[in-house]
Design a protein that fits this description.
- By secondary structure, this protein is mostly helical.
- It is built from one helix and no strands.
- The termini are far apart.
- The model has no long low-confidence stretch (mean pLDDT 83).
- This is Contains an MCP-like domain.
- InterPro entries: UPF0478 (IPR009293).
- Residues 112-132 are annotated as: Disordered.
Length: 132
């Protein structure tokens, strides 16, 4: 065997070992990719289920929000009505307060007139009895 043939034999053995290691690496890589593909498929199916449940939940929440919006609007209108009624009661109360002051003055005037009449009538009655 010559040196050239020996070099060719060493190169052929090295190339064979390289092909074997690459083959083993590719087999392991294929198994890893298969496992990874199955995991991704499982996650995709789970993700679809989660998205489906999220959509159902979102529709439910939107329906309840519409119901709640009507309730909130009704409470807001009720609050405005109560506020308007409160303002009206303040105005009526102010009017009655002013009327009360006038009534007190009128009552005092009426009481003084009645007292004056009563005194005059009382003073006139004994005078009539003495004449009769």
């Amino acid at each position: 065997m010559s040196i050239g043939a020996l070099a060719l034999l060493i190169f052929a053995i090295a190339f064979l070992l390289l092909v074997l290691f690459i083959g083993i690496f590719l087999l392991r890589l294929t198994r890893s990719v298969s496992v990874l593909t199955m995991d991704v498929d499982t996650m995709a199916r789970s993700g679809n289920e989660i998205l489906g449940n999220a959509n159902i939940l979102l529709e439910d929440v939107n329906g309840k929000m519409q119901t709640l919006d009507v309730t909130v609007d009704t409470v807001a209108e009720l609050s405005e009505t109560v506020s308007d009624m409160n303002n009206s009661l303040h105005r009526v109360s102010d009017r009655f307060s002013n009327f009360s002051n006038l009534t007190k003055a009128g009552a005092s005037y009426a009481a003084s007139k009645a007292t004056g009449k009563f005194r005059r009538n009382k003073a006139e009655k004994p005078a009539k009895k003495h004449k009769g």
